[in-house]
Structures are given as structure tokens and as C-alpha cells.
Design brief:
Two copies of one chain form a homodimer. Chain A is of the alpha/beta class. Chain A has helices at about 10-20, 25-30, 55-65, 80-85, 105-115, 125-140, 155-165, 180-190, 195-205, 210-215, 220-230, 250-260, 315-335; strands at about 1-5, 35-40, 45, 90-95, 120, 145, 170-175, 240-245, 260-270, 275-280, 295-300, 305-310. The interface between A and B is large, with 40 and 40 residues.
Chain lengths: ~325, ~325
């Protein structure tokens, strides 16, 4: 299985390491033999139709800051050019999310699908802005579009709701989908001011380079869009979400909530409306998790409410969700 | 799909009602057209190769206390005789669990498999005492043995661990698998004595007719056996579980735990050992749920720890898990 990897940040590096360490197991258990034939980051690229050496790739990045250092004797190709010209079976999109135009991820994904590549995206931007049309494009080009890593990191929330609950109709769901804001709200509950909690979260490396993605609920809203489309069959995008971030939550609000045995959490919710906003929930509600944890509660017609809790992000967790998607694609292809 | 239903208690009645109300949906969405061709309870039976009328079956049970009243003109057949003589595709075993010899469920299941019927069991007894050999027998007879309803009720815990986490190795798990003891321990935390909490739970109908199944951890141990076999690939049965119930937990223990921000919970755990015992866990651990809730935390190699929380039991929830099993079996059969 030939792979083009877009971006070589934390997730892509974790993926490369996992592919390297699990080579034998992935082949013997799942018949999966992934070969990265092309990869690019913001300052360079590497490619080889025989498959790049994974250890050497990590080395190049660690030593020189770019995969461009992998093999200086081979000419560098621009990322989009690589997708347009290199032959591959799957493209994995891991560049940073943005919710203005979702570029460059959007163009990467569209270009790859038009060239009949299956796509795995951990970049939420393109899905948040254009889920319905990207799904149509995938169908039209008869390719698979997978994105397990976009919601819940290593916790297979999308799969759980879609597959484990088959035979059930999910009526509504509510979730804490952003670990960073949950960390900040937890710290505020423990006595910090908003500013103190935010700078603590920044020191720990939890906050996105563009802090608005976390604080204004954009990240949570993007995940809500993906869940609403995938699980509920809605055809919605970012502008359909009623969104309020956590910037206006203050210590008094949190104290008042505590007096009623409640906590303030940034809840993404799907029932009649799609909303992301800081609301009070009972402290003994299973959904009410603390720190950087994520949680989501599905209410189904006949099986009551079920809550899944897990770490939201992390390079290895997200990388392992990409491997699940690869296994899936391998399985689907082999059916044809 | 012709079904023999063993037992007609709460779960079987809920199943019958669900099958009745969801007839059209099950057919249009899953191609599933279930026909109950035989059913028996402790005092009578009913059968019809064309399929019994589901409404009339519920009526008979509600009015006369037994399905034997369904059609007095047809001669009654003993349960085991029915399994031996009636033709069916699937047998659903819903009689009460016992952990001495697991009868009559054990003989029902073995007889059905030998007659090439697929089996769905919500009766934990046979699985707890003989999981490995029942799986072998199923394989030998080329039938499917499913049991989603035995652990987690409507919460698809078994499926989650087996399918949603594919590509992942689960290293260990811990769970609160019995809602009744969790209810009692929660009430004790709120100030009741053990005896008060037990009688409160009895009044609410939470306690099994044989209270030892709950209080001595037998029910939790049975579920642990099923999980260990199905998810971890172990070949274990009831005697392999180190088991301590909650009878010796007193209010002082609970107060002491609380002082360390801990709660005492009956935890079923699978790591180097298989144990069920009341232990202290941190109150802010996602696993630490209250009331009749169940929770299970899986720790996997690359995706961290993930916790699923849901209502443990309930007729409708368990019945809806049987429907999931039926859909599964339908799907597997159609592959052949």
C-alpha cells in the first residue's frame, strides 16, 4: 500500500515510528504492508517509489528540521505537485487545521481523490468546512475518506457510534470534545483565574498555536460537525453551529455552579440544535470529566445513554487511529 | 430467520415487544425477518412453524403467567424436547443464570449447537463455567455463539473492545460490572449501613432472587470470565477468578477511603491476575461511577485508557443487544 504523507509534524512522526515498530505485526495480522512513497513538510520533501526508509526519515527531520534533508541528491517536489504526479493508493493529510479556507489540506484532499487515492485526514479543517461535498466527491471517485483521528484521538468514538451501536438509533449526543478548554476550566475550578489557567495550559503545550481554535470553541465545533454528519447523517458545516467559547467564563460563574454541585464545561451538543457553549452539568454526570480528558455521551433509542471517556489527543493515539483507518481501507479494498 | 426462545422472563418479553414494534425497520434496514417458532417458560410452551403471533404471546403471558396459554389446542412440548425436534436457525437462551452447573441453559445451548442452530445467550452461567469448550463446540458445528447482552446490557462493551479497537492490543482492563453492588456501595457512601442499603436495593428490585450472585461477586466474576476469553483470548472459567464479595465492606472502610478522596468499588480486573474484589479507587477516576451504572476501562498499547459507562441491565437494553446479535448472525450467514 503506497502512501503519500502530507505534513510531518507530531502526528506524522508518531505514525512513521509506529509503522516502523509494528511492521511485522501489521503484515502478519492484517496483511498491511504500508510504504511511504512521498512526504513533504513546509520546507522540503522526499520521495521514492520503492518506499522511503522510515528510520532515515525520522533522522532527517530530527537533525535538520525537515524531511527535505532525507536525500539531497533527489530533487525536491512541491507538496501539491507530489500529489498530482506521484502514484499512490492512500494519501494521509496531517497539515494544520484552519477554519477560514481549510487550505492547503482542502486542495490536497480534493486533488488526491480526483486521482483515485483513498484519503485519511486527521486535519479537521476540510471536513468542518465541506464534509457533505467531500463525501460526495469521494463517492463520485469511488475512494474512501476516513478521519478516525479527528474526533477523540485514539478513542474510536466515530467507530463506536457507527458500528458498535448498529441496530440502534442515536437520538442525541453531548460531549466534551476539546481537552485544552477542559483543562483550563478544571484549573479554574481548582482556584486559578482564567488568565492563570490559560498560561498554565500554554506552558504545558496544550494550547494550539492559534489559541482561538481552542478558546473560541472552533476545534470543538469542527468535531461536532464531523460527528453530526457521520453519525446522525446530517449535512452540516461550520456555519450551522451555534458557538460560544470560554473566554467569558469567570471564577464567580464557576463558584456559583459548584454551589449547585455543578461544573461548567464546554459542551458540544447535538439535539434539535447544534451548539458549542460553556454550560453547567451535574458533577456526578459521567460526562463531567476533568483535566485534558474528553468524553461523549450518546443517547440511543433502546440502549439508554452511554458515555465514552478517553484522552483527546496525543501524537501516538492519533497515529494509532490512522493505522485503524489503514486497516479499514485495506479490508475494503480487498473486498473489491 | 426462525427462532426458538428459551425462557420468557423480562428480557424475552422485552425482546418480543421490540421485535413486534420494529418489524418493518428491521426488515428494511437489515433484511432481518425474525419468526419465533417456539418458546417455553417454566410452566408451558407454544410453537408454530409459521411463527407465533407476538402480540398474542405477550397477552398470554400477561394474562395467565405462562406462554402455555398461547394456544391450548396445541399440545405442550417440554423445552429440551422443543430444541431437539423443532427446526430453527437461531436459539436464544434467556433462562436464569446459575454458577453451579449452569443448567438448564447449558444443555439447551449444547443441544441447539449440535442441531446446527446459531446461539445467542444472555444467560451467563454456561459461558462462565465453560466458555472455552462452548466456543470449540460452536466452531466444530460451524455455528455462531453470540452473547452481547451478558456484559454491559445495552452498552456494546464486547463489541467495542473487539471491533472498535481493532489494530490495538488491549493490555489490561478494570471494570464495575455489577450495578446492584455498585448501588449498595453508593448508598453506603451516602450514609446507609450495609443492611439498609441492601434492603433499599431489594425494594427497588435490583437484587437477584439469589442475592449471593450479586453480593458475593459471582455475577461480576461471570462477566470477567466472558471478557477475558473474548477480548484477551484467555481460556479461563469461573474457578480461575480470585473473588471477594462486598459483604464485609463496612461504613468505617468507606469513610476511611473518602478521607483519601477514594471510593470503595467492586472492581473486576484483568492484568496478571483475574480478580473481583472491593478496592479503593480515586473518586475522580472516570471508572468511579455511582448508582446502578456500570463502567469499564480498557488500557491499550497505543491508545491509552478508555472508559465506557452505561446502564448495566434493564430488559429493553438487553433485548436490544440480542437484536444486535441477530443482525450480526444475519450478516454472517449471508456471507456464506
Amino acid at each position: 500500500m503506497r502512501i503519500i504523507l502530507c505534513g510531518f509534524g507530531v502526528v506524522a512522526q508518531s505514525l512513521t515510528k509506529l509503522l516502523e515498530s509494528r511492521t511485522n505485526e501489521l503484515y502478519s495480522k492484517y496483511g498491511l504492508k504500508p510504504r511511504i512513497v512521498g512526504v513533504f513538510d513546509s520546507s522540503g520533501s522526499a520521495h521514492s517509489s520503492a518506499g522511503l526508509n522510515l528510520k532515515k526519515l525520522i533522522d532527517a527531520k530530527e537533525k535538520s528540521g525537515s524531511v527535505g534533508a532525507y536525500d539531497k541528491s533527489v530533487s525536491q517536489i512541491d507538496g501539491l505537485e507530489m500529489i498530482k504526479t506521484l502514484d499512490a493508493d492512500v494519501m494521509i493529510e496531517t497539515t494544520a487545521s484552519n477554519y477560514k479556507d481549510a487550505e492547503p489540506g482542502m486542495t490536497h484532499i480534493i486533488t488526491a481523490m480526483k486521482r483515485s487515492m483513498h484519503v485519511i485526514s486527521v486535519n479537521k479543517g476540510p471536513l468542518a468546512l465541506a464534509f457533505p461535498s467531500l463525501m460526495e466527491l469521494a463517492e463520485f471517485n469511488r475512494v474512501l475518506l476516513r478521519f478516525s483521528g479527528t474526533v477523540g484521538g485514539g478513542t474510536p468514538i466515530l467507530d463506536y457510534a457507527k458500528n458498535s451501536l448498529r441496530g440502534e438509533k442515536i437520538i442525541s449526543f453531548q460531549g466534551i470534545l476539546n481537552g485544552t478548554t477542559n483543562y483550563i476550566l478544571t484549573k479554574m475550578e481548582n482556584g486559578m483565574s482564567f488568565d492563570e489557567a490559560l498560561s498554565d495550559a500554554k506552558n504545558k503545550g496544550y494550547v494550539e498555536a492559534d489559541e482561538s481554535l481552542d478558546l473560541d470553541g472552533l476545534d470543538a465545533a469542527a468535531k461536532l460537525v464531523i460527528l453530526a454528519n457521520w453519525i446522525m447523517g446530517m449535512k452540516v458545516t461550520m456555519p450551522d453551529i451555534l458557538r460560544t467559547g470560554i473566554r467569558d467564563v469567570n471564577t464567580t460563574d464557576i463558584k456559583n455552579a459548584e454551589r449547585n454541585s455543578n461544573s461548567i464545561k464546554l459542551i458540544a451538543s447535538c439535539d434539535e440544535n447544534l451548539t458549542v457553549s460553556p454550560i453547567e452539568i451535574k458533577s456526578d454526570n459521567p460526562l463531567c470529566v476533568n483535566g485534558t480528558l474528553n468524553a461523549i455521551a450518546f443517547t440511543s433509542e433502546h440502549s439508554g445513554t452511554q458515555t465514552i471517556i478517553g484522552r483527546g489527543a496525543g501524537g501516538t493515539e492519533t497515529a494509532s487511529s490512522i493505522i485503524r483507518d489503514l486497516i479499514d481501507i485495506r479490508k475494503e479494498i480487498s473486498k473489491i
